[in-house]
Amino acid sequence: MKIVIIGSGNVATVLGRLCKKRQHEMVQVVSRNAAHAKILANELNCAYADYDEKLNESADIYIIAVADTALQEMNSRLHLGNKLTVHTAGSVSKEVLKDISHNYGVLYPLQSLRKEMQYETDIPFLIDGNTADAITLLEDFASTLSATITKATDDERLKLHVAAVMVSNFTNHLYALAEDFCKKEGVDFGLLIPLIKETAERIQQFSPADVQTGPAVRNDIFTIDKHLRILTEHPQLKYMYIKLTDSIMKG
Q1: What is the reported pLDDT for 118?
Q2: Parallel, antiparallel, or unpaired: how do β-strands 125-129 and 104-109 relate?
Q3: Is 149:97 a contact under the CB 8 Å cutoff?
C-alpha cells in the first residue's frame, strides 16, 4: 500500500521502517520541522514536506503519528476526503479525525517505541475504524506489520493505555529509583538485571498475582523494618516502598 506518515518522532520512525520492510511504498513524510522530515524521508527513500507544503494525495493510508496534544490542530491542516486516515495514540478517540476524512480510525502500537532501537520487537496493534470497511482495510494492513491484531474501542484502548503506563512507565521509574539507590549506596545495579529478566519471563506463563514473592507477600515484618531503616536517607524511595508493600499485603 502507499503510505504517507505525518510525524517524524519515535512512533513515526519505527512504523515507517516497519512499513518499508514489509514492502509497502513510502510516499511522503510530513512533519512540522522540515529538517526532521528530511532525515526520516531519506531513510525511507521518499519525499518529505513540512506542514506548509503540499501533501501528497496519492496514498492509500495516512498515518498521523504525532503527540496527543498535536492531534487537535490537524483538523485545520488536513482535509483528505475519503482517504483512510488513522492516528497512533492510545488515549485519544478516533473521533478526533472525523473532520479530516470520511474514513478514519486508529492504528495504536501497544509497545514502547524509540527511533534508536536497533532490533525488531513484537508490536501488538489495537485497531478501530468508523466504518466496517475502514476496519477491514486496517486489519488487512496491520496484519502485514504484526501477528497480533486486536479490534478495540476507544474505551478499551484507553483502559489498556492506563495498564501500559503501569507495566512500562511506572516499572521503569522503579528501575530508575533502584539504580539511583544502588549508586548512592555503592552497590552494583547490574547484578539485578537477571532478576528483572526472570520476573518478566515468569509472567508470560503465570498470572503476576500467582508468582508474587518478597517480604510483603510473606508478611515478613522483621525484614520490611530492616529495609525501611536502610531507606531512611532515601525518602522518595521509602515512600514508594511503604505504599507498594501496603498494596501487596492487602492483596
Answers
A1: 80
A2: antiparallel
A3: no
For residue 78, give the C-alpha cell.
Answer: 488536513
Query: In terms of DSSP bridges, do strands 61-64 and 47-50 run parallel, antiparallel, or are they unpaired?
Result: unpaired
In terms of CATH architecture, what is 158-250? Orthogonal Bundle (1.10)
CATH code reported for the domain at 2-152:
3.40.50.720
Q: Cell digits for 131? A: 466504518
- The four Cα atoms 143, 145, 147, 149 give a dihedral, to 10 degrees, of -60
pLDDT for res 231 = 97
Q: Which pLDDT score is estimated for 57?
A: 92
Greatest CA span in the chain, whole angstroms? Answer: 68
Where the chain has pLDDT below 50, the residues are: none
Q: Which three cell numbers stand for residue 230?
A: 536502610
The distance from CA 140 to its chain's CA centroid, rounded to whole angstroms, is: 21
Q: How far is CA 83 from CA 2, 31, 58, 182, 207, in A?
A: 11, 19, 9, 53, 42
What are the φ/ψ torsions at residue 26 (nearest 5 degrees)?
-80, 120
Place of cell 526532521: 36
